[in-house]
Amino acid sequence: MFEKLLIANRGEIALRIQRACREMGISTVAVHSTADADAMHVRLADESVCIGPPPAQESYLNAHAVLSAAAISNADAIHPGYGFLAENADFATMVEEHGFTFVGPSPEHIRRMGDKVAAKQTVQEAGIPVVPGSDGAVAGPDGALEVAAEIGYPVMIKASLGGGGRGMRMVASADEMRDAYNAASHEAQSAFGSGALYVEKYLANPRHVEVQILADQHGAVVHLGERDCSLQRRHQKLVEEAPSPALNPEQREEIGRIATEAARRIGYRSVGTFEFLFQDGQFYFIEMNTRLQVEHAVTEMICGLDLVREMVRVADGTPLDFGQEDIRFFGHAIECRITAEDPETLQPAPGTVNMYHAPGGLGVRVDSALYSGYRVPPYYDSMVAKLIVHGANRNECLMRLRRALDEFVIDGLTTTIPLHQRLVGASDFINGDYDIHWMEGFAAGAAAEAAS
Fold first, then answer.
1. Which of 418, 419, 340, 337 minimizes the C-alpha distance to 378?
2. Radius of gyration, alpha carbons of the chain
3. 291 catalytically annotated
4. CB 3.0-4.6 Å disulfide test: which of 65, 151, 232, 385 passes with 368?
C-alpha cells in the first residue's frame, strides 16, 4: 500500500481524502495556494506545500506545480478529488509519466468519456440508449438547424467538452438557433478551450438519475445503486438523494445492470458515474463522470462503503474483496450542498465565519472544512459544506434533514441554508414529485414571495 499520498485539491474534499488515508495508515501531503495557508486541510495534513498565488490557474490548476510538490515530498500517489485537475487526461498522463500513481481511472478513459460526443458513441456501442440527437459535433449553426429539423424542437445544444451548464442552451425554434448557437459556442470556447457543440432532443420533464460504479484493475465491476440529482438550479445540483424515489425495483435493477455492463465492456477502473435522464420509464445516457462525485456521500450512507478508501485500494492494484451479491442497501440518504451564496440570487458571498456549529446526532454527517474565524476566499467554488442525513426510510430521512438544517449555524456568511429549509417544506419535494426543471420554478416563486 502507498506510504504517502498527495491530495491535489482543497476544502472539504481534501479533508475527506485525508481522513480516509489516515484510517488506512497513509501519510498525506496537502497542496495549497497562498490564500489557503490557514485552511483546515493544510492544518491537518502531515505535510503541506504552497503551490502558488490565489488564482486557481496559478495554483490548483498548475499541473507542474502539483507534480513538483509530489516530487519534493516523495509522495507515491496523487488523488485529484473532484474539480480542478480531476478529469484532466493530460494531467493523469503526466502523473504516471513522472512515476506517481494516479488515484483514478486511466488517462484513456478520462479522455474518451470526457468528450461528450465520444462518450455517447462509446456507450451506444455497449447497447445503452442515448437522447436522440446529432451523431457528433455539428458543423456550425447550419448543422444544428439540420439536426433540429430532423428530431423536432425544442432541442438542447451542448458543449462537446466540459459540463456544469456552460456552453448549453435550450432552443425552442429555428429562429432562435443562430444566436443561441453562437452564444453557447463562445461560452464553451472560453470555459473548455473548444467551441464544438452537439444537439440533443429537449426532454420536457425528465429526472436526473445516476449510477455509481466501482471497478478494480482485474475486471471486477460492481454498482453501488443510483442517486437522484434532479433538484438543480442553473444546471448545478443542489440536493441529491439515494435511492431515487422515482424508480421501482425492476427499473433500479435494470439501470444498475446497464451501468455495470458498460463499465465492464470498456475496461474501466476506479470509481465512476453513469448519468441518465429518466422519463416515461426510459433511461437515456447523457454523460459519464470519471472521478469521485460531490454527492458520493449519499451512496456511502446507504451501502456502508468508503469510496475514497476503495479508490486508493484499486489504484494500488488491490482486487475488490466483494462482489455485487455482497452489496446491501439500507435506508435512505439525502445530501444538501451548502454554499456561500445569496439564497435567492445564488450570487457568491464570501466572508469570515464568526461562529460555526454543525448539526449532529444519529444519521447526520457534515463534510466541511469550515471553522470559526475562517475566511472563505473569493477565488474558488462557493460550496462550503455538505449536509448528509440517513434514515431507515425516506420519511424518517426528511424529518432528520429538517431538524439538522435547523441546527446548522454558519454565522458571518450568507449561505443557502434558508433555501434548503424552504425546500424541505415543499409538498412536491416531500412527495418526491419533481424533475430537473422543478427547482427553477420553486426558486422563482420563493423570490417573488420574498419580494412581496
1. 340
2. 21
3. yes
4. 385
Report d(CA 34, CA 375) in Å as an integer.
13
pLDDT number for residue 155:
96
Alpha-carbon distances of 314 from 103, 220, 259, 319, rounded to whole Å: 8, 11, 19, 7
d(CA 427, CA 167): 33
pTM here?
Answer: 0.91
- List, for residues 163-190, the tens digit of each pLDDT value: 767 899 999 999 999 999 999 999 999 8
CA dihedral for 292, 119, 383, 244, sign (positive or negative): negative
Provide the grid cell at 392.
431507515
Place of cell 417573488: 448
| Residue whose C-alpha is closest to residue 91's, from 116, 70, 119 | 70
Domains and CATH numbers, the chain: 4-103 (3.40.50.20), 132-201 (3.30.1490.20), 207-451 (3.30.470.20)
Residue 450's pLDDT is what?
57
Q: Is 250 exposed, middle or buried (0-12, 13-18, 19+ CB in 10 A)?
A: exposed
Q: Which of 227, 269, 291, 365 is catalytic?
A: 291
Peptide bond into 154 cis (omega under 30): yes
Write out the three cell numbers for 309.
478508501
For residue range 54-65, what is the model confidence (pLDDT) as tens digits?
A: 999 999 999 999
CA–CA separation, 262 and 124 (whole Å): 9
Q: Which three cell numbers stand for residue 77?
A: 500517489
Comparing CA positions, the residue from 292, 294, 289 lying closest to residue 276 is: 289
pLDDT tens string 98-152: 999 999 999 999 999 988 778 888 888 878 888 889 988 999 999 999 999 999 9
| C-alpha distances in Å from residue 163, one per residue of 36, 297, 316 | 26, 21, 30
DSSP reduced 3-state for 440: helix
Asked whether the predicted pLDDT for residue 446 surpasses 80, the reply is no
